[in-house]
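During the second year of the project, the team shifted from modelling isolated chains to modelling whole assemblies. The rationale, set out in the original proposal, was that interfaces cannot be judged from single-chain predictions alone. As a representative example for this report, we include one of the complexes processed in the last quarter. Its constituent sequences, exactly as entered into the pipeline, are reproduced here:
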Amino acid sequence: MQILRETKLEGLKLARKIGRERVLEVLSEKRLIGRGGAGFSVAKKWEIALGVKAKERYVICNADEGEPGTFKDKFILKNNSETMIEGLLIAAYVLGAKRCFIYLRGEYDYLRGELEEKVREVLKESKMKVSIEIVRGAGAYICGEETAILQSMMGNRGNAMYKPPRPTVSGLWGKPTVLNNVETLTCVPQALVYEDWNPDYRLFSISGDVSHPGVYEWELGIKMSTILEVVKPKEKLKAMSFGCFGGIMPVKKNLSISQDTLCKNDCQHGAFSIIFIGERHNVVDICLSIAKFYTYESCGKCTPCREGTIRLVNLLKKIKNRDADEGDVKLLKEFAEHIQETSLCGLGQSCGNHILTSLKHFRKDYREYIK
Amino acid sequence: MRISVDGKRLEVDGEKTILEICKGLGIKIPTLCYHKSLFPEARCRLCLVDLDGKLVTACSTKAGEGSEIITDSKRVLKARRRNMELMNPGANISELSDDFEAREIYEQVGLDNERFKPIKNYLPELGAALVRDNNKCINCGRCVQVCEKIQAISAVDFASRAHNEHVTPYNEKHLSEIACIKCGQCLINCPVGAISERSHLKEVIKALENPKKHVVAQTAPSIRAALGELFDMEAGTLVTGKMVTALRKCGFDKVFDVDLGADITIMEESAELLKRIKKGGPFPMITTCCPSWILMMEHFYPELIPNMSTCKSPHEMLGMLIKTYYAEKAKVNPKDIVVVSIMPCVAKKFESTRPELNTEVDYVLTTRELGRLIKQKKIDFVNLEEQDFDPTLGIASGAGDIFGNAGGVMEAALRTGYEVATGKRLKSVEFGSLRNFEGIKTGSIKLGDKTIRYACANGGANIRKLLKDKDKYHFMEMMVCPGGCVGGGGQPIYFDEDVLKLRSKALYEQDSKKELRRSHENPIVKEIYKKYLGKPLSRKAERLLHTRYRKRDGF
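Output from the structure prediction step:
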C-alpha cells in the first residue's frame, strides 16, 4: 500500500533543503488534495494561511474520525504514524508554526500512549523546535468539523461556527490555523519523497455484509465489480451507504467510484467508507438507525437541525411501525430537504442525505411499510 | 458595493450584514436570536433570505459584490415558516403575552402548528427572583450571551446536544444555588418569556382585598419613566401623577415615594463617606443600592465587604420607616401594614428574602407586574388624572429622583456630601461627567483640602473592568444593569437601547424642574431626623437603616 510507505524524515529534510515556496509548488504539482471529503488543495490551503499576517500560526492534525463506517485514520495511526507526524512537521516548517496539535478522537484514546511515544521519537530525531500536543476529543461527532474542533480545543462547547472567517484566516485563538486530516498529512512527505507517488490512491473503509471488511487502498475510478471480488459479499447485496452522510444507493457492478459517478446518484463519497447492506434488510431500518445517530450528534445550535432531526426519527419510526401513510413520507422528504437547506454546518447540510437518496432509489422498501 | 435586493439595484456599504442593509431599506426580516449588542450566532434561522440561490441567515451574512438578494420569495417564506414550526410545535399565538418580541414575529412569519407535537418536558425552575421554564425556550441563546458578555457572570449556558440542548445554570443546578446575581437581564433579553419574574401579584391582590390590612405602596424612582410604555405611551414619558392615581384606584391605602428613601440613603451614605474621610478609610467606599451588585460582590469580590457602605437600599429604608415612624405617626398597628415596593428590578424580590436585612418590605412588584395589575383592574391609565404622593412620606428632592439613572446615586451623594462637608453651596448641582451614557464614568471633587475621586460603572462587565483599578478612587457607585435602574430587569421589555436614553432623560428632567434638589434640604428628611432618628449614623439609624453582608460561593 502506498500509504504505508515510510519516509524516515527524508521528506522533512528535502522540504528544508528546497524551501517553503518550492514545497508548495511540488505539492500542487503532485495534485495533493485534502482527504477529508471536501477535496481542497493542500498547497492552496497552506498558502492562504501563509498569506495572513500573524505572529503565530498553528497546525492541527484532525484525527477525530467519527464518521460511522470509517476507520482508515485509525489504520494509519496504528501502522504509519511516524510519517503522519513528519507531515505535521513539514506543515509546521512551511507555515512557520511553533505549536502543532493532534486532535485525537476520544474513542481512540487507547492509541494515545503509543502515539505520544512516536511523537517524542520523531521530534527528537528531527531536531525541530516545535511542540506537538495531543488533544483528546470528548466524543462528539461534530468535533470532526473544523470550526467545532477549534471551539472544542479552546475549551468551549463543540459548536460549528459561521464561516467566514475560515480557520486558515482566523482559527485557534484568532490565529491562522491549518487543519488537515491524518491521511492528508501522511501523504505530504510521501508526495515529496517518492517520484512515483500516485495522487489518485485513496483509502477505502469497507464494512457491512461482506466477508472481508477492512481498509483497502484503491485508485479513484475503481469498478464496483473489482471491489466486490475482493471483499466477498456474504449474501446478495441490495445497497451501499457511504458513511452516514454520503447517501444510500443500489450496488451496481459496473459503477466506477468517483466524484462524478456518485453525484449522478445524489451520493457523496466523503472519506470513502462504504457500508454494504444485504438483501434481508429493509433500507428504512438502516435510515432509522442513521437518523438516530444524527439526533444524538447534532450540536443543537441551529433550529432546523436541533428540532428537525428528532422529527425525522419519529417519522421513520412511524413508518417502520406501519402507522404511516403517503403524507408522512411526503413530510419526511419535505423536512429532510428543509434541514439540509437551512442549517449552518456540514452535519445539518447532509443529515437528510440518507433519507433523500433512499427515497429516490428504494421507494419499494418504504411502500412495504406503508399502509 | 453594488447589489440587488428584491430586484432593486442599489449601492451599499460592504461591511454591513444583509440584515442591516434590509433594515435600512425598510424591509422587515423576522429575527429571534438576533440582538443589536450581541454576536450574531444565527441560531433561530428565521432571518433566512435567498442569496444568489442559496438560503442564508441575514443576521450573520455579508453580501458580496453583485450578489442578488431575495427576501420575500415563496421559498424563503416557506423555509422561515418551517423553522418556526419546528421551534414552536403546538404554540398558540393567542396565549403569548404582548410583552415579548416573539408575538409580533410569530404573526409575521405565520405559524402552522398542526404537524408536530411538542416534545420538551422540563420542570420549570422557581426561584426567589426568577422563574425559568425551559418548555417555552427556543434556544436562541440571548440569555447565555448577555450573561456572559454584558454582565460577565456566566450563570447560564447550554447543556446537552441536539433536541436535548437546553439552557441551564452551572452543573444543572438551580439558579438559587449558583453564583447568579439575579439581575434579570436574561429576562429582558428573552424573546419568548421563558424566563420571568417570580410574581407576587397574587399575594398583593389578596392583601388589597383584605379590609383589615393597611396596604402601602412605595414606588421606585425609575418606574415612573417607564410604566407608560406598557400602555403604549411614548418611551420617556413621565407618568408620576397617573401612577399614583392608578395605585390608589387599585386599592392601596397610601402611596409613598421611594425617592424619599433615596434622600435618606444619601443622608446616611454621605455621612458615612465623610466619616471615612475623617478616619482615613477604608477606601473606596462602594454604594449598595443595587441588590444585584451586592450579590455580585458577595459571590466574586467578598474581599470588598469592608469597603461596602452599610446602608440598606432606599426601598428597604423607607419600608422600615413605614412600619416604625409612619406606623407611630398614623397610629396604625405595624402588624396590619403591608408594604409593597414597586421596583424596576427582579433582584429586589430576592433582596427582600435576605435575613440580614430584617426586612419590613412584604412584597415586591416589578414595573411589568404593576402594569398587569392596572390592566386587570381595567383602569384607563392614559387618561387618568394626576395626583400627588401621600405627604407623610411622599416628598422627595430631585436628588432622589435621579437614583434611577446610572451615576445618579453618585451625583446625589456629591450634592449633599459637598455641601455638608464644606458648608458652601454648589453653584450647579448637575454633574455633566456623570450624565453621559458610558459604561464607566469617573471624576473628582474637592472637599476642603482633600480631593475625592469617584467612579461609576453600570453593566457587570464594566464593573469588573472598573474594579481592576479600584484603588484609585474614594467613592464608587455600581449598578449591574446597563444604564442603571432605567434598564432594570423588572422594567418593560425594550428592543432598542435608545429607549433607555429616553427614560434616563425623563428622570433628569424631573430633577431639573424641582426647586428642591438636595437631599439634606428635604423638609420630610429633616423632620424624620429631628423627630425620630436623631442624626445620620445615630444608634437608631444604624439599627434601622444599616445592614451587613456575607461571603458566598464563587460557583
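The longest helix of chain A spans residues 303-320. The first strand of chain A starts at residue 58 and ends at 63.
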